[in-house]
Amino acid sequence: KAMTANIVQTSVSLCEDTTTYQIQLTGSTPGGAWISVPGGVVNATGLFDPSLATAGTTYKVYYVAAGAMLSCSAVDSVDITVIAREDASIVTVDQTFCMNDPIVTLNTVNPGGSWSGVGVIKGGFDPTLAGVGGPYTINYTLNGISGQCPDVQQIQMAVMAPIDANIVAAGPFCENSSSYQLQVNVLGGVFFGPGVTATGSFDPAKAGAGTHWIKYWQTGFCPSSDSIQIIVDSIPTAVIAPVFLKGCAPVVFIFADSSTADVATAHWDFGDGTTWDVQSLDASASHLYTTAAQNIVVSLDVVFMNGCSAKTSQTIDVLEVPKADFTFDPIPATSDDPRIFFTNKSSNASEYLWNFGNTADPDSSIDTDPKVLFDAPDGDTVSVTLIAKNEMCSDQITKDVYIKDVFTLFVPNAFSPNGDGVNEMFLPYGKNLKCDICNNYEFLIFDRWGEVIFKSKTVGEAWNGKRANTMRDAEIDVYVWKLYYTNYFTGETGNKAGHVTLLR
Is 415:499 a contact under the CB 8 Å cutoff? Predict the structure, then answer.
């Protein structure tokens, strides 16, 4: 009868510290023999013992089912590799730290593994990250190249809190203040610094004016310290810093408290019978003055936060508000004589600034009563502004000054229509000699016999020296002219007559 031998696995890997491993058969003839190469690691029942093996060695294990004849025998095998257990031994030992200690590097016999646990960061232990407490279990896992026989080792870490050395803030103090016992959360430490005893009695006079660092030191396994700055002021000065020293009634004066130390309480006397008490670090104040007065004394009494006190005062003036006003003459001025005299009627002012516009000479002035020539050939209405000032305040007024245009008339007494281009025409001239709405304009020329040789009803039409009826040149002679016109502004009619000499 033919034998059968069939091992389930063809290869197996075992860690060196595995207890035993039972090789499994399937469909095999029972009663066969187990043999290993190298030998000595498998028993008669197929139980493989890694403790008898050499780590790093692969063993060939055979199952042999022998028949009556060699040809009826059967054999099968499995390769069993024994792998060494990884060594995750930790060099760093169990420790207790203070919370503010630096990060500790975690060292091992074999690198390449991974760390885990409270406070672990990048291959180190951070007491601050872990926080007060413990012991904390820190694990080191080494999987090795195969990852089949990893090892995990542990150490214990504990974190202690430093003794609380916190100093309660104190001051500022006045240079002549009495000694002050500094306060701490936990007693038992030692104080160091200017003006302080080992037990924490601070004497501002011994420390002197200035800023001083005071240190408190707590000893022990986790020592700690704290420092504070204590300011010792020279005996402070009360200072009033008004925004301005003069103003015009009614006016609100703002008095800034610029004292050299923080204020606990302050008493203001505003010098007009009004007082004010304030409790604030900043004793700045404001006060409304409604009545003008000179040399008002404002006083300030201060008690500072450091217990010092001081007093100061400031003199202010409350002025009358200026009132700007002026008159001018003549009323109205005319375009043929546009000079105007200004009379200043302002009150409570000491300085003046006039603005007469860009058609005036001068266009501005600081004189009290200026005289001004306006450029207004056709008349004008000019806005004149006067600003009246005293030391602090000003007022201004603007008035319209009217310069009246005029009607004028002028007729020459000779002309020479000889073709030389000079004085060729004869006609009346005048400012505003125009007749938009009238119909009585007429300009007449008579010869010595009374004959009309030229006439026109059109303003600006001139006699060219020719007889109008024949268009021949008039003789050199003296001619009579007559003009009928209307005053452009008043509408009044008038007439004028005269003589003109014609020359060639």
Answer: no
**Residue 178 DSSP class:** P
Cβ neighbors of 45 (< 8 A, separation 6 or more) are 22, 34
- 41, 48 in Cβ contact below 8 A? yes
CA of 346: how far to CAs of 182, 212, 320, 395, 475, in Å? Answer: 68, 62, 12, 9, 68
What per-residue string of b and e applies to 474-494 under the rule 16 or more CB within 10 Å gives b? beeeebebebebbbbeeeeee
Tokens of 255: 């008095």
Q: Are 333 and 404 in contact (CB under 8 A)?
A: yes
Three-state SS at 128: helix
Distance separating alpha carbons of residues 414 and 367, to the nearest angstrom? 48
Are 289 and 278 contacting, i.e. CB atoms less than 8 angstroms apart?
no
For 204, phi and psi rounded to 5 degrees? Answer: -60, -35
Instruction: State the DSSP string of 162-175.
Output: PP--PBPP---EET
Q: Which of 27, 34, 20 is nearest to 3 (CA)?
A: 27
Q: What is the pLDDT of residues 2-30, one digit of tens each?
A: 789 999 999 999 999 999 999 999 988 89
The per-residue DSSP string of 32-76 comes to -EEEEES-SSB-TT-EE-GGGSPTT-EEEEEEEE--SSGGG-EEE
The identity of residue 211, as a single letter, is T
Q: What are 99's two structure tokens?
A: 């919370």
Kindly give the pairing relationship between strand 190-192 and strand 210-218.
Answer: antiparallel
pLDDT of 187-230, one tens digit each? Answer: 989 999 999 999 999 999 999 999 999 999 998 888 889 999 99
Tokens of 399: 């008035």
Tokens of 396: 């201004």
Round to whole Å and give the CA distance between 163 and 166. Answer: 9
Chain-centre distance for alpha carbon 42: 86
Instruction: Give the pLDDT confidence of 359-380 residue by residue, as tens digits.
Output: 999 999 999 999 999 999 888 9
Q: How far is residue 353 CA from its own chain's centroid?
A: 39
Residue 380 three-state SS = strand
> Per DSSP, what are the bridge partners of residue 178?
none
Residue 489 φ/ψ, nearest 5 degrees = -90, -40
